[in-house]
Design a protein that fits this description.
The protein has 17 helices and eleven strands. Strand 1, helix 2 and strand 2 form a beta-alpha-beta unit. The chain is elongated, with a radius of gyration of 32 Å. The N terminus is likely disordered. The relative contact order is 0.07. By secondary structure, it is α/β, with parallel strands linked by helices. The strands form three sheets. The chain has a five-stranded mixed sheet with strand order 2-1-3-4-5, sandwiched between helices. Helix content is 47%, strand content 10%. It has three domains: 160 residues, Rossmann fold, CATH 3.40.50.1390; 136 residues, Hect, E3 ligase catalytic domain fold, CATH 3.90.1750.20; 142 residues, no CATH class. It binds zinc ion (ZN). Zinc ion binds next to loops. The site of zinc ion (ZN) has 9 residues, from loops.
Length: 511
């Protein structure tokens, strides 16, 4: 169609398309948030040049560029509008903005081919007449190359970020919780972190720390406006190797894949296995950070990690002490006021029928508690004297960890092959599935094997040192880590009534 005809006719309504992507950030200044503004300007300039009317700008935030899975909402709407003749063409900065994948382009070609009306498909780099074989050929070639380039660029960006990480450079982007900027500690936040670490080492659950932070309006720079901090970010912040100067590098695709990335798994190490140390002020020493992560991991392994504390005040051995007659967990109750037992002991443990027990056993509380505490502390003191060997990993565990690492690189490789179209989608899906099954299996193995060496001697000596400052909940958590149950047996006739404590009636079942 000629310019003369167009001038006489009504101007065509077209859609402008802009897309934010991460990949190619190094490239042409059309990426990221600001890049989109430039893309929009390009569209309007182009519209003037082509003498068409921009009906609407369609814009997608697609930071995963060449990945097929990501849905582009505005792109889909644009296709619909194009098919229903609401718009008669598309303008964009570049064809690779519009069609990331050859398959996107084919959908457009179908519409252009079938339409019996004037259509336009223009970019600042040139126009493509999708109604002709020649135009389609050019467009296809271009998109294929762009698709390949995106994959390359993604790898290039990943490599560059890894290189920066290996260099110990601070993270770019938003500051981390605990720091004013990339390098300097924020004392107020650092204090919050130190306190949380102390509390957790003393048995506090992350869930409790989370509740306290939320109540105190503690926020990270990543906390969305108007929301309180999430459990996940409390966990993330506390596990962040950055706290002690270690550098983690989490590839973009890993961040996208799941909401709960554990930064501990992404420590950047030198070839000799020592961690890269970054160039910023630290909040913990590496030992302090390791200790914290160890304690958190040990809870994860026992499956007792995220439990919201109950409101019922528990005695030290409620549920841990068991009836030697029927095996039920013992409950506690107060002696009747004014009785000598009340004056002397206050509370007692009992096997309760209401809890499904036999109801035939009871024992004064404090002497049992004291006894178990002393035994446990003796046990921990012994542990504290055992040095490094307890912390050394066994070969089976090391092998499993090494395999796990290999799985990760296998997955990355599969993804790369997929990106460069060397694996079909079904082959890729099958391979990823296989690797993920294997990964799950290995993770379980690592988690099981890691249970033994977690009680580092330093942790044991700290517990002994600070035991008197522990709350009942903290003590219970500690007891449950080493002791499965305390079995309380019935005294012989009249035995218990004499008020003499008889340790032989208590049997401690260690884990
Ligand atoms: Zn019983």
């Amino acid at each position: 169609m000629t310019a003369a005809r167009l001038a006489g006719a009504e101007m065509l309504d077209v859609g402008g398309y802009a897309r934010i992507s991460d990949v190619g950030q190094i490239g042409d200044g059309r990426d990221g948030r600001e890049g989109v503004i430039r893309q929009r300007e390009d569209v309007y300039d182009l519209a003037k040049l082509k003498r068409v009317n921009v009906h609407r700008i369609y814009e997608d935030n697609d930071t995963s560029a060449y990945k097929r899975k990501v849905k582009r909402k505005d792109f889909e709407e644009m296709i619909t509008d194009l098919a229903s003749a609401t718009i008669s063409g598309i303008l964009a900065y570049n064809i690779d903005r519009i069609a990331r994948q050859p398959r996107d382009l084919e959908r457009l070609i179908d519409i252009y081919e079938q339409a019996r009306r004037p259509m336009i498909f223009a970019t600042t780099a040139g126009d493509y007449d999708l109604t002709t074989a020649d135009g389609r050929f050019q467009a296809r070639i271009y998109v294929t190359i762009a698709n390949k380039f995106s994959a390359d660029a993604a790898r290039r960006v990943a490599r560059q970020k890894l290189a920066e990480a290996t260099d110990g450079k601070p993270h770019k982007g938003q500051r981390a919780f605990g720091w004013r900027d990339a390098e300097h500690v924020d004392e107020k936040e650092a204090e919050i972190l130190r306190k949380a670490r102390e509390d957790i080492l003393n048995g506090k659950l992350i869930a409790t720390v989370h509740r306290e932070w939320a109540e105190a309006q503690v926020r990270t720079p990543q906390t969305p406006a108007g929301k309180t901090i999430s459990y996940t970010s409390v966990r993330y912040v506390l596990r962040n190797p950055r706290l002690c100067g270690y550098r983690a590098y989490i590839p973009q695709e890993h961040r996208e894949r799941s909401g709960r990335v554990d930064p501990v798994e992404y420590l950047v190490e030198r070839t000799d296995g020592t961690p890269i140390v970054g160039k910023w002020e630290t909040i913990f020493t590496p030992e302090e950070w390791r200790e914290l992560v160890d304690v958190l991991d040990s809870r994860k392994n026992t499956g007792k990690g995220r439990k919201v504390g109950t409101t019922v005040t528990k005695r030290l051995l409620t549920g841990i002490a068991r009836c030697g007659n029927c095996g039920s967990g013992l409950a506690s109750a107060m002696y009747q006021r004014g009785t000598p037992s009340y004056e002397k002991y206050g509370y007692y443990y009992l096997c309760k029928v209401a809890n499904g027990g036999c109801g035939t056993l009871s024992r004064s509380g404090p002497p049992v508690d004291d006894y178990v505490e002393q035994i446990l502390l003796g046990h921990l003191k012994k542990q504290a004297q055992v040095v490094t060997p307890a912390e050394r990993e066994d070969p089976e565990l090391e092998a499993a960890k090494a395999k796990l690492k290999r799985i990760n690189s296998d997955k990355a490789e599969a993804r790369q092959l997929r990106a460069s179209d060397m694996l079909s989608l079904s082959e890729f899906a099958r391979e990823i599935r296989r690797l993920e099954d294997k990964e799950q299996e290995l993770k379980e193995k690592v988690s099981t094997l890691s249970v033994t060496p977690i009680r580092a001697s330093s942790a044991a000596s700290r517990i002994v040192r600070e035991w008197d400052k522990f709350t009942v909940d903290m003590k219970r958590a500690e007891i449950m880590r080493s002791i499965e149950a305390v079995v309380v047996s019935k005294a012989g006739k009249g035995g218990a009534q004499r008020g003499k404590f008889r340790p032989e009636l208590l049997e401690i079942v260690w884990k």
